[in-house]
Fold each of these.
Amino acid sequence: MVVKIAKRLEAFPEYVFSHIGKAIAKVEKASGKKVLNLGMGTPDVPPSPRFVAKLTELVGAPDMHLYPGYGASPEFGDALCAWYRKRFGVELGADELFPLLGAKDGCAHFPLAFLDPGDEVLIPDPGYPGFNGPAELFGAVPVYYELSKRTGWKPDAAALEKLITGRTKAVWINFPSNPTGAVATLDELRPLVTLARRHNLTLIYDNAYSEITFDGYKAPSVLEIPEAREMTVELGSFSKSFSFAGLRMGWAVGNKTLIAALAKVKSQMDSGMWLPLQRLGAYALSHPDSEWSASMLQNYKARRDTIGKYLARLGLTFEVPKGGLYLWATIPDGEKDSETFASRLLEEKQIVVAPGTAFGKSGARYVRVSICANIDKIADYFVE
């Protein structure tokens, strides 16, 4: 008997971090040494004890075992609306928001909601692999727009416009950026909103790192631009802001027609976010632990600066990012490419970084280095 699988799986490779995980296991077994994993972007600062205690309480609720229903509970929806009003000055209606099982849940299901087979979607290069994989899985066509150091890793509206065809339906934008750490102001986002509006494109704005910012920078919401409400969906995440990564909690907000389309798709895929998690999300948004948040950001900032000093010993150069959880570093001129460099670093020093090519062709001379890793023994890995 021949086991048959879907041909669509041939359209894309194994997810890059699944592959890296296997390489780590192999090297640890061979070397007997725990690797320093600066490749994965897993927020590792423990959540606020207040929120952990709240979750423990909520798990004991008499209705915790029930189906949560589709869409947001009134408690979650009200809290998210209040948070957007306070944080961004943006007013949301109940039909302009939807809870997600992590922001990646939105990435996975947007193509089914917004794109038909053969439709084109503009995707940043370098960019988060979660933008293109699901599009290819469902028959859409990724069209990559190149980002570069010359433009500060930000899209140029005029260059984007040249890529738009009659089949273009949507465009992904992401700030603070994964992997580059680039940040954007509202003035820099306005031309992109104008472009999407002029060409009747859905604008999908990944704002998952909005609360992970440094050095006085504060990330905006693209929905602060009034015209964006006509064609935009914005992603948010509890994973980074609250260190709830394993709980899989996020949201989508924006144009009500687009939110309804996403909700229709999601109704076929799962049964909603668990009620204790919706209640935890509502509590976290409406009862922020400011002291914990400040400590968390200071922790990441200190690690950003410390890791940066050690990277310089490897001949890596980079601009210090004002947002996100990564350093986007240029490999030395003498190195062949990012994949070869990352592989050699793992084999020789048991240090893991993500090759820039995992995020697009424009990453051939770069590696992404995570700042959310335990670096208590980092000096042991950089012995000459």
Amino acid sequence: MALKKLRVFTGNANPALARKIVDHMGIPLSRATVKSFSDDETWVELDDNVRGADVFIIQPTCTPADKHFMELAIMIDACRRASAKRITAVMPYYGYARQDKKVKPKTPITAKAVAVMLEAVGVKRVLTMDLHAGQIQGFFHKPVDHLHAMPVILDDISVKFAKKLAKRKLVMVSPDAGGVERTRAFAKRLDTGLAIIDKRRDKPNESKVMHVIGDVKGKTAILLDDMVDTAGTLCNGAEALMDNGAKEVHACCTHPVLSGPALKRIKKSKIKTLTVSDTIPLSKKAQKCKKIRVVSVAEMIGSAIRCIYEEDSLTSLFA
């Protein structure tokens, strides 16, 4: 099917990823002016015609989350008012996903509020990746396509650790109880052992490792998580694994939030390498960190956009 009525725009959150996506698809990136006035208000002007078009706006709501969310919302509104046929928000990283439930009587469910606001401005579909809480899909009344970086990370692990896989010296590790299902899926696909780190979190962004469940002695352990924020969970987990006899520790995460003391912790930690995807762009400091490796999800997202545009199934992307 010709891509005549397909338009792919990007905000300022991750234009490098957007360019990789359209390069994979073999189409140009649609033009839009997205800037800020002197008082920091966001201004958007579409430079390409979107009348009757199927529009995809690539914009992870990463740091600064509020600014990037407003860019996305205003771009959606601009496309709706310019008579776009359908508008899909492509959010490789869904900001506020950790605020998915009421933790106290007088607190909001911000992940739901984000969904309400996006639908209010005119979004017709959402394409996202590795939501921190899968139930966020149900916060929308519109279709949500939830991709996983698993195939990309699996391929990377299979190549990088091929010899250890052959000798059955690899073990996949969940850094907490909440990530066991994800880690078990990786262990099953790679035919490796599974271990779990039992931890308790005293307050946000702080965790205390208790003990390791599973056999890691003499093995290469790979910690697996959906995101790395302040890196406390991963670094404490790596130390616990080494204390329990692991030969070496690596980590894989989809979303490199890397806020606060994350980079210092990673540099000082016992983690040999941290593999992340490009859903969020790395800061200049993070790019200089020799432990951090980046794999791209651009091809997967580009394939998903093409499938949605052509009204085809996305099932093959989960293989």
